[in-house]
Amino acid sequence: MIVIDYQSRQPIYEQIVERVQMLIIKGILPPDSQMPSVRSLAVELSINPNTIQKAYTILEQQGILYTVKGRGNFVGDSELLIARKKQAVFDELELLVRKGRDLGISKEECIRQMELYWKEETS
Amino acid sequence: MIVIDYQSRQPIYEQIVERVQMLIIKGILPPDSQMPSVRSLAVELSINPNTIQKAYTILEQQGILYTVKGRGNFVGDSELLIARKKQAVFDELELLVRKGRDLGISKEECIRQMELYWKEETS
Amino acid sequence: MIVIDYQSRQPIYEQIVERVQMLIIKGILPPDSQMPSVRSLAVELSINPNTIQKAYTILEQQGILYTVKGRGNFVGDSELLIARKKQAVFDELELLVRKGRDLGISKEECIRQMELYWKEETS
Amino acid sequence: MIVIDYQSRQPIYEQIVERVQMLIIKGILPPDSQMPSVRSLAVELSINPNTIQKAYTILEQQGILYTVKGRGNFVGDSELLIARKKQAVFDELELLVRKGRDLGISKEECIRQMELYWKEETS
DNA sequence: GTGGTCTAGACCACA
DNA sequence: GTGGTCTAGACCACA
C-alpha cells in the first residue's frame, strides 16, 4: 500500500507522511480506521521503527491521525486534510504565477498550458 | 542587493544561487558584467568565503556564470537561464494540476484562482 | 583500492572522482553496492572528510553515485558511465587526429602507432 | 595573429605559449625571426605584461625562443619543437588506447573512428 | 551510525 | 588583487 523510494532525496519519514495523507484523501484509509502499528509497518517496509514513529508523530501533530493509548493510531477527519491540501495547492499556484510573471510568461500562455495539462490522461 | 535569511532551512549557498539567478533574470546583473568577488561578497553578507565559493561554483556549473582565473566571475548568457526557468515553472504547474485533480479541484476553479493571482499587484 | 598522488597538480577530489569511476567501469564496484562512508574513506586515505564529500557530491551530480540520506552513498548505473566515457575517448581521439595532421603526421603512421599500442600488454 | 579566449579555463599564459608554438609549427613565425616585445604584445592583447613575460619565459625554458640581451626574443629551431609535439601526440594516443581498451572498445572500432576523423575536412 | 552545511584559516596559481 | 583547494572542526537532519 505504501511504496518508498529509497533513492529519493526526500527523507523516508516525509515520504511516509505524504503517502498516508494521499491514502486518506483517496478514501483508501477511511476516518476512524486503524493504522498499522509502528512495528508492523516497520517490518513490512524494512525500515527503522524510529522512522515510522517520526512520520506518525508528525501526522498526529497535524491532526490527521489520533492516538488512543494502548490501542494504536487511527485516521482522523479527512475533510480537514483535504481542505488544507487544497489551500496548499493554491498557495503554490500563487507563487508559481509570480515566478512566471517575473520570467515574462503571459497570462494567456500560462492558462493555455494549464488547460493542456488538465486534458492529459494521468496514470 | 542580496538578502540572506539565516533562519531558513534552505542552505545559505542555495539562497545565494537563487538570488543571483533572480538578479540576472530581472536584468539587474547584465550579461558579461562582473560579479562581486568571493571575498568581498563574503564580507558584505558576513558569510564565510567558502560558502560564497560553493554558490559561485554551482552557478558556473549551470553555465550561468563564467570564471576567468585571476580576474573574477562574470555573468553569462541570461537567455539560457530564462528559458530553463520557464520550463521549470511549467513542469511545476503540471505537477500542481495533478495534485489539484487528486484533491477534487475543478478545472474552472483552478483557472479562476490563477486569473485572480495574475491580477494582484506584486511588490 | 584507491591510491592518491599527493604531489600531483591534479586536485585530490578529482583524483578520487576518477579512481571511483574506474573502479565502477572495471566492475570492482558493482551497481547498487555501498560506497565506503565519507568518514571511513577520509580516515583510510588520511584526507579531510570535506574533500571526500566534494568528490562524492560531484559523482552524485554526474549520476554515477546516488545518496540515501542517513544511510550512505551507493553505486548507480555503470552503463551510463561507460557510454559517456567512450564518447569522451572518441572526442579526444578526434582532437588528437587534428593535432597530428597539423604536425604533418601521416594517417598511416598514426594507425601504425595505434596498432602498436594496442598490442602492448597492460599492467 | 594571437587570439586569446578570456572565458577559457586554460590560463592566458598557457594559451599564449600554445598559440606561439602553433605559429612556429605552421611556419608563420620562421626561425630567427624576432618576436614582438613583451610590452607591445601586452598592449596589443590588452593583457598584463607579467602574463606575457611568463609565457615568454616558459617558451625560452623549452628552447623554443631565445633571448638576446638588449635586442629581444627570437624564434629558435622549429624542428625541435615539431619533433617534441609529435612525441606528445603519440604519448597521448597511447594513453587513449589504454583508456579505450579498459572501456571495452575494440581495436577495429578505434581504427575505424580514427580513419573517419582523418577524412573530415578541417576548418 | 550516515551525509550535508558552515566557519575559520591556510596556501596555491593566476593576472 | 582574483578564484581554487584543502584542513580542522563544529553542528545539523536522518535512519
Give an overview of the whole structure.
The structure is a homotetramer of 123-residue chains. By secondary structure, chain A is mainly alpha-helical. Chain A contains five helices and two strands; from the N terminus they run αααββαα. The first copy, chain A, has a two-stranded antiparallel ribbon. In chain A, helix 1 packs across helix 3 and helix 2 packs across helix 3 (49-61). Chain A starts with 11 loop residues before the first helix and ends with a helix. Chains in contact: A-B, A-C, B-D, C-D. At the A-B interface, helix 4 and helix 5 of A face helix 4 and helix 5 of B.
What characteristics describe this protein?
homotetramer, about 120 residues, mainly alpha, two-stranded antiparallel ribbon, 5 helices, about 5% strand, elongated, DNA-binding
Give a summary of the structure in a few sentences.
Helices cover 59% and strands 7% of the residues of chain A.
- Could you tell me how far the N terminus lies from the C terminus of chain A, measured between alpha carbons in angstroms? 17 Å
The number of distinct helices of chain A, counting runs of at least 4 residues, comes to 5
Note the beta-strand portion of chain A: 5-15%
Largest interface: A-B, 30 and 30 residues
What is the 3D form of chain A? elongated
Contiguous low-pLDDT stretches of chain A (5 residues minimum) are none
Over the alpha carbons, how many angstroms does the gyration radius of chain A reach?
A: 18 Å
Helix and strand content put the structural class of chain A at mainly alpha
Biggest β-sheet strands, sense, barrel of chain A: 2 strands, antiparallel
Mean pLDDT of chain A: 92
Oligomeric status: homotetramer
**Helix content class of chain A:** 55-70%
> What is the strand tally of chain A?
2
Strand order of the largest sheet of chain A: 1-2
| Topology pattern of chain A, helix = H, strand = E | HHHEEHH
